[in-house]
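Support request, please re-run this one:
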Amino acid sequence: QVQLVESGGGLVQAGGSLRLSCAASGRTFSSYAIGWFRQAAGKEREFVAAIIWRVGITDYADSVKGRFTISRDNAKNTVYLQMNSLTPEDTAVYYCGTRRVGVKEYDYWGQGTQVTVSS
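Re-run finished. Output below.
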């Protein structure tokens, strides 16, 4: 059974940094991508970043380019989201999800981790 477990959220001041982790299990992820999404209160879930596991190709939302970095650790089956220069607009619940490469829809999601950025 596929399982994604996020961790690393918390409260940070504006300008600070956090690193989120997404521990993945239950399938061989070499043909899959892992993505990070976020959902702020009262808003729809939005794409943040994604990485194609096998080749390491990454993609970012314009709002986080230059501030966030997605990476993976094959040995730990874990994807990270390093978030720098955080602003209050980054406050949200952050989710990781997985999809097969070439397929648009994500089929499994984690439970989410709260990130709160104070001004």
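The longest strand covers residues 92-100. The mean pLDDT is 96.
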